[in-house]
Amino acid sequence: MASNANKKGNEQKRVAEMLITLWQGGRIVVKDLEETYGVDERTVRRDIKAIKAAVLEQRDWSWNHDLVQRGTSKVYAYYLTTQDELTYAEVLALLKMVIGVRALSKPEMLTLREHLLGLLSPSHRENARRLTTVTAGTYRPVGYNAKVWPAEETQPHIGASTMEKLPLLDDIATYIQADKWIRFKYQNSTGAVNTIVGKPTSVTFSAHYFYVWIYTQQQGNEQVYRLDRMQPDSLRAAHRAEQPKNTNEGERVNQTYLLGNELTSEPYEIQYWGWPQTALDSLPGVKQVRRATAEEERHHPTGTEILKTNPTSVIISGTGQMQGLVLWIMGQGALVRVLKSPKLRAAVLTEIDRMRALY
User: Which of 162, 215, 283, 347 has minimal CB crowding within 10 Å?
Assistant: First the structure.
């Protein structure tokens, strides 16, 4: 009787340990279990069959296997995955984007990387880890190069590269969800620190930065603030004031390319001699694209290699923010010509004059 009780106790302990291994994201291999517990293959397979049956009754888990090398042979390794986990390709894509945009501090990026890797099976996890190890190791968050400034010079928000943004993002999202007003200190691009009171309405992302859209009663409209320039320790709930108008967050996303302080007063129209998709990828507010007419094409600039392979320009119209449009247009050089609006043309010409004065 005692022998049977011990045997049953050993079996329960063995099965429990196997389940814990699986729940923690590990794999179990028949040959390994034989050696670990000193039992035969038949016993191990009986245990695995019982575990598999129990797992399949649960909707949250699925039973999987892959092949691992043991000696000169490949054998099955069994593991569990959650039903709602991301696929290998989805996790890899997210990892590459998180690393590529450089928006998070390095500790935050590494923590998020481990969380995403934890959604994968053991074999996929190692593959994804290997494919991101080099880029993660050389990761340089936005603001990292601020270290090149002389020690005696204080640069605006020089700590942006080490600032933990996810806790602040969580706090802002909580205030938005609770429909509350906030008070916080904000350091602008010149280094000046001001106290802002307003109601956050949404969060967007553009290029390397998170932006918080905040309605301020003083301005009477929404203003855009960079998350990494907000001082987390100063964030507090504030007295409720005038309620802002409802706005479309989807439209905001289309307006946030290189954020400025105002939208163009009327739709813009530009002529572009580069690859059309290059412009479309950078200008999400595009409304229409058409091929230029022969009359419009006479403004064709010369001497640029890309023009020799793509001599026909396109006319692109849409809406966007003034500062972002001007910066993008200046970056394209002779590949772009502003047709409308007069306000945008004037802004570009002013910027060209400023540049010319430097040479």
Answer: 162
What CA–CA distance (Å, rounded) separates 151 from 128? Answer: 39
If you search the block for the tokens 């020089």, which residue do you land on?
Answer: 158
Its pTM stands at: 0.61
* Cis before 123 (ω within 30): no
* Domain 2-82 sits in CATH 1.10.10.10: yes
Cα–Cα distance for residue pair 259/8, rounded to 1 Å:
67
pLDDT, tens only, 145-180: 555 455 555 555 545 667 889 999 999 999 999 889
- The domain made up of 172-255 has a fold known as SH3 type barrels. (2.30.30)
Distance separating alpha carbons of residues 227 and 156, to the nearest angstrom: 14
Nearest to 335 by CA among 308, 355, 306: 306
Check residue 211 and give its pLDDT.
92
| Residue 137 pLDDT exceeds 90 | no
Write the CB contacts of 10 (distance below 8 Å, at least 6 apart in sequence).
Answer: 37
